[in-house]
């Protein structure tokens, strides 16, 4: 058995994977594979509607919002957000590499006010107490920063529309959707395989920019056609649905949040306790999804040895991103608490050796 | 057993589907699922390189071209083509609904000269003998028109750059890639499941427009990063690779073209012979991929009866598109000749009843 701590694409529930295989063999009793059936068939249409409804149910999405499944990844959303919402000026919170990429795209469409940045300390904290320009069309935030291991755990109260990239903590906790005009997430962390993004969008928020939008870049196109304007990424959408159905059985986002808190507390606790390691992120900004840590000052040269030791114990994907170094354990929804306990055991065994 | 004549997503080789299931269970001996492994892992990196190399091998792609796998569907390519290549004026051949959609996007970026259109006869033929403006940045064609069942079977010789949407006949015959600046195709017809597009692009052709391109819309972004600028649609790319490996075993595009000609000849032959049916497309413009036919004048009222009869015989997906009516049998690479023979048998049985 392998212990999968990859940052994304990442661990998924076995049940979701197994159900997707069954559908590849024989989809919804049609005698055809999920890969070979028209997206206009009544069977896939039902799956798409079910996926949208399940997102709404899990996050208690209020009336007036639509759920979309689009290809092209969250990086395409950086562009679409600006295309659809940025008329004159937008506000962005700079909490890391992905936030910076979103900022870069927005600058092609208008003025960008960066309200705060944690770049000064290699993005190891979430900025607080910044002010937001009243005349901005929206504030864009990245709620979880996969590379640096920081997370915004509350829903901001702001006086302008709020748009959040939740790619790496989507569905890991309850969210008050009514506080957002739009939430988006690449599926390949908490809710499915690579290949689709999930978008929750307030319908009233659209139609306020004066530019002409290319068809595929226009959220209204996809709302009007229920995410079926063109052929959607069928398999990815279906597997997201299976992942969300598993999540419902775990007590939904309320249930999984409890487990996620337990898991994160356990692992950060061990990192703080173990003489060999230190966390890279300030308390109060630490992510429950991506736990970053490095070797303690006196043990700097053990970096590679620990990585090799962990690998020899079937731990996969804990090498830190090159921007931070050290280690990163990604502990998304589908990672069981027992895997955290196993990793802690390996960390303690390594500590005893030194 | 079902006989799958869907227009897309469509029938795939069983071997490709089975291999993709094996990879979902345990990818490349990693002990992890293809769905759960980092796209930066050396195992997936190898699969991506293999997929690119296999496309190049199959179509004998000359030096100076790159192969890309991008999400968002061919509809996103309508936009990206214009973004990347249209400086002042572009020429488009209007052979159907998808060509018209490509034209609509291009008009957002510059002048569009429609060099010819077959709209006058409900797109039932491929226009010939049209002239192409010398000062256009490129000519865009749609080589196969899924809805109407027409196909351009030769590689045009033109004096300006040629760009082709080959979504529904990609890899069904040899193509002289050197005659094109770009070829693109949604995978979900001949080469894989929905979720990725395959793009073959001449590197020298880029960088000639003066506008600033959004990162994800810029082909250069994806060339520079080998289709891994952001997380690619991992499962779809891998399954395309399996489909292409199957194609190589069929003798590549040269081998499959022979079978495709046989299959199309058989079916059109029966439609011509059978007193109940007539083809909708003129000889010389008929697609080898999508065979459209309707009830003969005297048997118009048998439309629904034939559809029900075929369905009762486990034939799936032959209802014609609403723009044409009647029937459409999509007979892509993976559809065996025996399925054509079976369909013909059903048509003859129906003929005997009337």
What does the secondary structure layout of this molecule look like, with pairings?
The structure is a homodimer of 354-residue chains.
Chain A: E1 3-4, H1 14-25, H2 42-58, E2 65-70, H3 73-85, E3 89-94, H4 97-106, E4 111-117, E5 139-142, E6 144-145, E7 150-151, E8 162-165, E9 182-186, E10 197-202, H5 219-224, H6 234-249, H7 252-273, E11 277-279, E12 290-295, H8 303-312, E13 315-316, E14 327-330, H9 337-352
Short description:
Two copies of one chain form a homodimer. Chain A is built from nine helices and 14 strands.
The CATH topology of the largest domain in chain A turns out to be Aspartate Aminotransferase, domain 2
- Please give the share of residues in helix of chain A: 25-40%
Q: Please tell me how large the radius of gyration of chain A is.
A: 21 Å
Describe the oligomeric state of these chains in a short phrase.
homodimer
Q: Identify the overall geometry of chain A.
A: globular
Top-tier CATH class of the largest domain in chain A: Alpha Beta
Cα distance spanning the termini of chain A:
27 Å
Task: Report mean pLDDT of chain A, rounded to a whole number.
Answer: 97
Series of H and E elements of chain A: EHHEHEHEEEEEEEHHHEEHEEH
User: Which ranges of chain A are low-confidence, i.e. pLDDT below 50, for 5 or more consecutive residues?
Assistant: none
CATH superfamily of the largest domain in chain A: Type I PLP-dependent aspartate aminotransferase-like (Major domain)
Structural class determined from secondary elements of chain A: alpha/beta
- How many DSSP E strands of chain A? 14
Q: Could you tell me the strand content of chain A as a percent range? A: 15-25%
Total domains of chain A: 2
Specify the biggest β-sheet of chain A. 7 strands, mixed
Greatest interface by residues involved: A-B, 62 and 61 residues
How many DSSP helices of chain A?
Answer: 9
CATH architecture term of the largest domain in chain A = 3-Layer(aba) Sandwich
Which sequence of strands runs across the widest sheet of chain A? 2-10-9-8-5-3-4
């Amino acid at each position: 058995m392998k212990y999968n701590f990859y940052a994304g694409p990442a661990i998924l529930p076995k049940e979701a994977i197994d159900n997707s295989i069954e559908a590849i063999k024989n989809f919804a009793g049609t005698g055809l594979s999920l890969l070979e059936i028209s997206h206009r068939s009544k069977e896939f249409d039902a799956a798409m509607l079910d996926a949208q409804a399940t997102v709404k149910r899990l996050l208690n999405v209020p009336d007036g919002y639509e759920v979309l499944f689009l290809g092209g990844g969250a990086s395409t959303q950086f562009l679409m957000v600006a295309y659809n919402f940025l008329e004159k000026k937008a506000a962005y919170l700079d909490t890391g590499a992905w936030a910076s990429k979103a900022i870069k795209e927005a600058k092609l469409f208008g003025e960008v006010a960066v309200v705060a940045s944690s770049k000064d300390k290699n993005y190891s904290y979430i900025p607080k107490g910044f002010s937001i320009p009243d005349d901005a069309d929206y504030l864009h935030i990245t709620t979880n920063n996969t590379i640096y291991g920081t997370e915004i755990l509350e829903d901001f109260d702001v006086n302008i529309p709020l748009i959040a990239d939740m790619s790496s903590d989507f569905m890991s906790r309850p969210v008050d959707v009514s506080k957002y005009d739009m939430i988006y997430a690449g599926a390949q962390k908490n809710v499915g395989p690579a290949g689709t993004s999930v978008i929750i969008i307030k319908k009233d928020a659209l139609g306020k920019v004066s530019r002409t939008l290319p068809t595929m870049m226009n959220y209204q196109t996809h709302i009007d056609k229920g995410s079926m304007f063109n052929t959607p990424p069928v398999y990815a959408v279906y597997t997201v649905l299976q992942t969300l159905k598993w999540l419902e059985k775990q007590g939904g986002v309320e249930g999984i949040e409890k487990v996620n808190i337990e898991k994160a507390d356990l692992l950060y606790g061990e990192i703080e306790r173990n003489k060999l390691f230190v966390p890279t992120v300030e308390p109060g900004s630490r992510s429950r999804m991506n736990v970053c840590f490095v070797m303690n000052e006196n043990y700097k040269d053990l970096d590679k040895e620990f990585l090799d030791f962990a690998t020899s114990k079937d731990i996969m994907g804990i090498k830190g991103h090159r921007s931070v170094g050290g280690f990163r354990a990604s502990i998304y929804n589908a990672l069981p608490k027992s895997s955290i306990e196993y990793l802690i055991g390996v960390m303690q065994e390594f500590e005893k050796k030194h």
